[in-house]
Amino acid sequence: MTAAACVWLYAVVPAGPSPGGGGSVESALAAISGVADEPLYLVPGPGVAAVAGAVPCEDFDEEPLRTHLADVTWLERTVRIHHGAVDALVRAGPVLPMRYATVYREESSVAAMLETHRERLAAALERITGRTEWGVKVYLAHRSATESDGARPADQSSPGTAYLLRRKAQRDDRLQTRQRAGEEADRIHEALAAAAVENARHPLQTAEASGRREPMVLNGAYLVDDERLPAFEKAVASCAADHGALRVEVTGPWPAYSFTDIGGLPEGE
Amino acid sequence: MTGLSPREDAQGLADVLERVLDKGLVIAGDIRINLLDIELLTIKIRLLIASVDKAREMGIDWWEHDPTLSSGERDLAGENKRLRERLAELEGDRTTTKRSES
Question: Which among A19, A53, A145, A167 could bridge A38 via Cys, Cβ 3.0 to 4.6 Å?
Fold first, then answer.
C-alpha cells in the first residue's frame, strides 16, 4: 500500500492564460516545491484554479499536523515555504493566498470547493488584479529629554535633584508622546488609506515580536493600485516628513494576504 | 526615502507570520487545526533564530556542512573523530593567523 496523499492548498488563481502577460502560472509552478518538498500542480475549477501539492497524510492529517505545528522549527520552515510559493506565483498574475494549513483529504473536495465558491473567488481575484499589498509600520522613535519644554529643572539645582527632575520630565514627556503618537498614527493611516484601494489595521506587534525596542503605533496594510504606487510612495514619504518623532517603515510588496475576504461564507464552510 | 523595495529578512519574520498564519483566504479544508497565538509563535521562532545565529557567530556551524549530522545520523565514534579533526583544524587556523599577523 502506498502512502495516502492529502492535498495542501497554496493559493487560488484565475484558470487559463494569465491576463497580466507575465510568466505563466505553470512555469512559475515548475520552479517551486511545497511544504513536503512536493511538486505543485493546478486543480482546475470553473474560471478559477487551486494551486495544490500532494503531501503525505501521515504528516499532514489532523493528528500528525498538530504535532508538527508544535515544533517551531518545522513551523517556520513550512510557513516560509508556503509564503515562498505564494510569492513566486504573484509574478504570474493575480493570486489569492490560502491561509496556511488548508489541507484536504481528497482532490475531489478541492474541485468541489472551487465549484461552490466560484463566483466569490473570481470576484476576489478581480478585486486584487493589478494591485499589491504594502505594509506600513510606524514606530515611536526615542526622543531626547531636551525636547521636553518647560519642565526642565534650572541648571543650578543640586546634581541629584536635577537628575531626578530630569528623569520625571522624561517620563511625563514619554507618556504624552505616546498619546500623541497614537493620534498621529490614526492620521497617517487615514492619509495612506486615501492613497490605497483598501486598507486593514493589524494588531500592533510587541517589542519581542517586532525585534525593535521602539513601541509600534501603527501596523497597517494597504492594497494599492500598481499604477498609483508613486502616489502611495509620496504619501508615505510625506507622512514620514510630517511626523518627525515617528519612524515609518514600509514592507512589501506582499501577496494580498490581508485582502482575501471573499465574504458570505457560511459558518464552518 | 529610497522608494519601496522588496525586503525579506529576519526582521520581517513577524510580518510573514502574521500574514501567513493569520490572514489569507479562509476556506476550511477537511483537516481542521487551531493555530496557536501568532505573537507567541513569532517570539519563539525569533528566539530560535537568534540562538542559531549566535552559535554561528561563535563559529559553531559545523553541523551545517556535515551531511551525516544534518541528516540526523549520529554515530558517536564518528562524531568524536570529526570533532577532533575539526578541533585540530581550528587550532591549525589559529597558528596560521598568528603567524600571518606577526
Answer: A53
Query: Dihedrals φ, ψ of A253, to 5°?
Result: -70, 140
Please indicate if any CB of chain A lies within 8 Å of the CB of B19.
yes
> Which cell goes with A164?
531626578
Chain A residues lying within 8 Å of B48, measured CB to CB:
72-73, 76
Tens digits of residue pLDDT in A194-203: 999 999 999 9
CA–CA min distance B67, chain A (Å)? 18
Structural fold of domain A132-258? Alpha-Beta Plaits (3.30.70)
Nearest-by-Cβ selection for B41 from A72, A113, A206: A72
Residues 6+ apart with CB under 8 A from B97: none
Answer whether residue B3 is part of any domain: no
Residue of A nearest to B44 (CA): A72
Per DSSP, which regions of chain A are E strands? 5-14, 40-44, 48-56, 96-97, 103-104, 131-140, 198-201, 216-225, 246-254
Nearest by CB to B48, from A73, A233, A257: name it: A73
Per-domain residue ranges of chain A: 5-129, 132-258
Express each pLDDT in A211-239 by its tens digit: 888 999 999 999 999 999 999 999 999 99
